[in-house]
Amino acid sequence: MDSRDLTTDLQQQLTELQAFHTRVAILQEVATAINRKLTLDEILPEMGRRIKWLMDFDHCSIYLIMPSFFTTLFGPPVEKTAFDYDVGLNRIDWVLQTKQPYRTLASGNGEPASQFSSHMVIPLESENVILGTINFASQKTNAFDADDLRLSNLLSMSLSASIRNAQRYEEVKHLYTQLEQTESLREDMIRMLMHDLRNPLSIIQGNLDLIGLTLDDHTTYETNRRRIADGTDAVSYTIQMIDDLLDVHRLDSGILIPKLDIVDILDLFKEKEQLYAIKAEHANITFNTTVLPNVFPIQADRRLLSRVIDNLINNACKYTRPGGKVELLAAPYDSELHISVRDTGQGIPVEYQAKIFDKFFQVIDAKGAPLRKGTGLGLAFCRLAVEAHGGKIWVTSKPNQGSNFIFTVPVKN
Ligand code: ADP
Predict the structure, then answer these.
(1) Which of 42, 267, 271, 377 is the most buried (most CB within 10 A)?
(2) Which fold has domain 174-253?
(3) Higher confidence at residue 51 or residue 135?
(4) Could you confirm whether domain 261-410 is CATH 3.30.565.10?
(5) What pLDDT, in 10s, does the model give residues 117-170?
């Protein structure tokens, strides 16, 4: 090489170095811009706006593992399959497994024909955890050189840090919401302990005092029997309330997992018929149960299923005036069983129909006072128990005409 060749060679290297230097400066600008953003919803569009300043390509996308998604940042939207190498082989998956960047080489590394002629996939990694990949593609052959790869690696470091920060931000936000919910649950529980538990306990205490005081006088056997019955009712109510509270907590936090067993619906409905026929008669309410033909035995936690039905029937009786009707029905529906409790009671205004399944929610009357006839936990328990079985629960209702609570139990294969 003579000295003229050497000078030309050096000049060319200098020009390339200056060009690379300019691109690194642009990269710094891009990195600063995305680092200022806090959430993925802000980071990714910002990246999409600026990424084209860095190099020449026709497509840029991001693949993230958590939350799992593939999104195009630049160019017409494509699917992750645009990075397929062969059947069952995808360049993005290869990068995730090997933690190595992928780049189509000048030799073509045996590139099969695809939507694009060149691909470059860079892992996004922070603190040794693979977060996903940033992907480039071009219609041109041999579109990405070694400088593009170096620059993309630098970009990936900065982008990974921003994504990790965004994920941490989401985690903290989620924890904060949970903390707020726990706090409001605590307040609700204190309110319940003050109002709802105190009441039945005072009834029990009052009746026991009266029985004690009148043991030696002429109080009739009937009067004391009524006092004992009132006290027993109050005890059942308190136990039911505590059971609801405990089960809601256990189901909500995943501690209580349904113990699945074969449940014979006919048998369960017969039990309910016996239990509620007399109670309903006392309240002058007609109660009946119907099991449609072809109702199959289901797999469910009998105790939980039975308590869901109890809650719905008790509510139906509670909110139905004397002379009304309550019906328990089971019907097969595709691969599900539908169980419903229908009443002819006061009904539920449309605006409350979704909310009544929330913890402690109670419908309020026209004056804004809660129609307090319970704890507001029964339907929350029903929803959690039904969902733990993989089913759904909802209500259809018209004020003053009645309500129909329906829940589904999927049939397990
Ligand atoms: P509660 O213990 O207060 O009855 P639930 O969670 O069982 O709590 O029910 C929440 C609210 O939904 C009740 O306060 C009541 O207003 C309404 N509700 C539930 N079932 C019925 C029904 N069958 N008819 C009318 N209103 C109902």
Answers:
(1) 377
(2) Helix Hairpins (1.10.287)
(3) 135
(4) yes
(5) 899 999 999 988 999 999 999 999 889 999 999 999 999 999 999 999 999 998
Upper half-sphere CA count for residue 182 (Cβ side, 13 Å): 7
Say how many Å lie between the CA of residue 174 and the centre of ligand 1: 30
What are the structural domain ranges in the chain?
15-167, 174-253, 261-410
Q: Which CATH architecture has domain 15-167?
A: 2-Layer Sandwich (3.30)
Q: How far is the CA of 312 from the centre of ligand 1 (A)?
A: 9
Query: Are β-strands 261-263 and 298-300 bridged in parallel, bridged antiparallel, or unpaired?
Result: antiparallel
Nearest CA to ligand 1 atom 14: 362
Residue 340 φ/ψ, nearest 5 degrees:
-135, 150
Give the atom of ligand 1 at the shortest distance from the alpha carbon of 341: 23
Q: Which residues pair with 337 in a beta bridge?
A: 332, 409
352 DSSP assignment: G
Task: Please compute, for residue 339, the number of CA atoms within 13 A of its CA located in the half-sphere on the CB side.
Answer: 25
The ligand 1 atom at the shortest distance from the C-alpha of residue 361 is 10
Judge whether residue 109 has pLDDT over 80.
Answer: no
Q: Are 386 and 393 in contact (CB under 8 A)?
A: yes
Q: How far apart are alpha carbons 342 and 406 in whole angstroms?
A: 8
Distance CA 128, CA 130 (A): 7
Atom of ligand 1 nearest to the CA of 381: 6
